[in-house]
Request: fold
Amino acid sequence: MTTTPFISRKGMTRRRMLGAALAAGAALPLAAVASPAWADPAAAAPAATRLMLPVPTGPHPVGTVQLHLVDRSRPDDIAGPGHFRELMATVWYPARDVERYPVAPWMPAKALQAFLDDAGFSDLAPLGPLTAGHVGAPVRWSGRRLPVVVFSHGAHSHQGDHTVMVQELASHGYAAVTVAHQYDTYTEFPDGRVAVPLHDRQAPTLPGDFAADLRFVLDCVEQLAAGRNPDVDHRKLPAGLLGSLDTRRMGAFGWSKGGTATACATLADERIRAGLSLDGPMQMNPPLAGYLDRPFMMMSAVFTRATDPEAAAYWSHLRGWRLNIQAQGAAHVSYGDNEALFPQAAKLYGWSGQQLQDVIGTLDPDQAVKIQQAYPLAFFDEHLSHRRGHLLDGPSPAFPAVTFLP
Reply:
């Protein structure tokens, strides 16, 4: 298995690794969060039961396809002369006639293995969940182009870590494009190379680098909308994808560092008509500049305006529609697939209820999943699809944990 350069974190205790990741605002994916000191994988190997993701609630089946992208405007000094910024992206969309198409895994097999090996949970690799996305299925055409949202993952994570949200949006008629930020992610390229996080301060892994990736992905969306295939390997795309995307209705969202990157990109690029940050630290690099008159929503957990000056500063720069909500009892990982996957892992390993709460917080996991399905959809429905609902107007009895912050 070929990988990009990587320095092992095994010298760090698992509890210290968890604490450091939280303090830095790093992503806490399944493998990393499953590593507090009390969780000893050797003590109880899990039974052979595949982990499951919740089924999306929308009316449409979901299709998916990977794209291999190269940004020739950004040389890659780490890869060497003649190389440029290289990314994997995945498009999720409403599909039709999906029965003949296989479902996609949560992560490519070799990337998942590297991801879990790094945290010492190799025995979970055969249990990796499947998604609702059917690989290569034809796009469902409704007579109108699809609104688009692009997604940015957190630090040391992967583009599938918010599949619950992504496939939920696709099932309701959106094209969602996730990006794997090279040198800060686990992913697999078409030639078999496996990329893992590069622990080097010189690597292009700042929020501004992530934001540049998002803006490049928007360029690729524009190519798809114009009928051109941006995949550098010229692989076949699903029927109906070319020409099906609406570049006048594009949004962005991200988690943790990806949430900060979304804020940066939304400030810088008017093509992003609406932005959503999932507990982003808002530690801007480059520094915060300018004001935003387009809709922006913050779903806070650990990085709140009351405790983090950077989050408060970003909020003060919002001059358009804005909303800040917080789910009581949410941990940093609560707005993502962890809420669906960790309760299952806890049963396999025999963790206590307190041990599970130490990782995912006190927010009820079923409620957490419903929150992350409902609120991002309501936000993009209102500001990209012009479908006005009432969920964002104030507290809802259906979601008693969600508070609206003034």
Notes: The two ends are 50 Å apart (CA to CA). The chain is about 30% helix and 20% strand.
